[in-house]
Design goal:
Blueprint: E1 2-6, H1 11-22, E2 26-31, H2 34-42, E3 46-49, E4 68-71, H3 85-109, E5 113-118, H4 145-157, E6 162-167, E7 169-171, H5 175-185, E8 190-192, E9 201-203, H6 204-217, E10 223-226, H7 234-244, E11 251-253, H8 255-262, H9 264-270, H10 279-285, H11 294-307
Parallel strand pairs: 1-2, 1-4, 2-3, 4-5, 5-6, 6-10, 7-9, 8-11
Residues 6-13, 30-33, 36, 51-53, 72-74, 116, 118, 167, 169-170, 174-176 line the site of NADP nicotinamide-adenine-dinucleotide phosphate.
Length: 313
């Protein structure tokens, strides 16, 4: 198959590209960085220099036909940096452009597209969210409000043909998780408030495997939660990561102080509480987890991060 990956040089993408190439696909990867073109080539894929917000500038470099498009682009957000109202509005516009332009390409090529989402649900006590739950847009996740409507409209009209993969927090060697690793390495990671809220996790390799399965099975018009089997509190995840990195003393910081420092937008995400079911993805996509628990996934990831820089660093 001829597959275009938009955002293929990020965390999930760097695990996805070698798998797609290994499966004998012709893989085209959009990147804004000239340096990454050579790295993409080394993987056996084709790099296309361009910005998804400026399609006119790179459309001449796209192949004549495409069988599938995968969107994995994410705006550049520096964790822990307070976001102004203006910046948040810009990020919303940027996210909208990512979805709108990628979906337009899917219509132009009459190719199905896999779109991203996040497990931004609010569950309480023993509740477990599945794909029928409404996504709760609070804090920084508000930048995706319009994209929910775009995805739902496409599903209703079947134009373009859409599959949505709704990822938990993606961890692996790269992206935002690299930032968390570096914070921990410098002894700057802290447990925020009680840290008793759960956020779903997914190893980047398992996220990539879910994309491969979605391409194979092509369940058009469906949404799938892509998270592992093991709910864990923020506190337990952070303590486990600290143990793996031999960081003995993990400080605590009251929630209200962190909210003052980083602002409401990041704080709301950190404090989100959510448990999810991945049953639909396992059943319909035949998706099997390499890392059903964060414990195995983190052990492999921390070892990898100590030994290697991210592929596209
Ligand atoms: N990370 C998470 O915890 C998480 C959770 C839920 C959902 N998601 C979603 O899952 C997807 C993958 O996340 P990730 O963590 O792998 O992302 P990531 O590591 O931040 O990668 C971002 C990617 O977006 C590309 N990109 C950014 N702006 C672009 C533009 N204007 N034009 C073309 N490409 C652009 C970057 O490519 P270049 O810099 O090479 O141009 C890079 O490959 C994203 O859509 C994200 O919203 C992520």
């Amino acid at each position: 198959m001829k597959i275009l990956v938009i955002g293929g040089t990020g965390l999930a993408g760097s695990y996805l590209l070698p798998k797609l190439v290994k499966n004998d696909n012709e893989v085209f990867v959009l990147t804004r960085s000239e340096n990454k073109i050579e790295r993409i080539k080394k993987l056996g894929a084709y790099g296309i220099l361009g910005d998804i917000r400026k399609v006119k500038e790179f459309e001449k470099d796209l192949p004549g036909e495409l069988d599938f498009i995968v969107l994995l682009a994410m705006p550049n957000v520096k964790p822990g940096h307070r976001i102004t109202k203006k910046r948040k509005a810009e990020l919303r516009e940027e996210t909208n452009d990512f979805f709108r332009n990628s979906m337009d390409l899917a219509i132009l090529y009459n190719a199905p597209i896999i779109l991203p989402g996040g497990t931004s649900y609010k569950t309480e006590k023993d509740e477990i969210a599945d794909e029928t739950w409404t996504v709760l847009r609070i804090g920084l996740t508000e930048i995706g409000i319009d994209t929910d409507e775009m995805v739902n409209n496409a599903i209703k009209t079947n134009n373009p043909k859409v599959i949505q993969l709704i990822y938990g927090k993606i961890y692996g060697n790269g992206g935002l998780f690299r930032f968390m690793f570096e914070m921990m390495d410098k002894g700057r990671s802290k447990i925020i408030g009680k840290g008793d809220n759960c956020i779903p996790n997914i190893h980047a390799s398992d996220a990539a495997n879910a994309i491969i399965k979605a391409i194979e099975k092509m369940p058009i018009g469906e949404k799938f939660i892509i998270a592992d089997d093991t709910p864990v509190t923020q506190k337990d995840f952070t303590i486990y990561m600290a143990e793996l990195m031999n960081k003995k003393r993990l400080g605590k910081i009251p929630g209200f102080i962190i909210k003052l420092i980083i602002g409401k937008d990041f704080y709301e995400i950190i404090r989100m509480n959510c448990k999810v079911s991945n049953e639909k993805a396992k059943r319909i996509l035949d998706w099997e987890l390499e890392y059903p628990s964060y414990k195995d996934g983190l052990t492999a990831t921390i070892k990898d991060m100590k030994e290697h820089k991210p592929y596209f660093a």
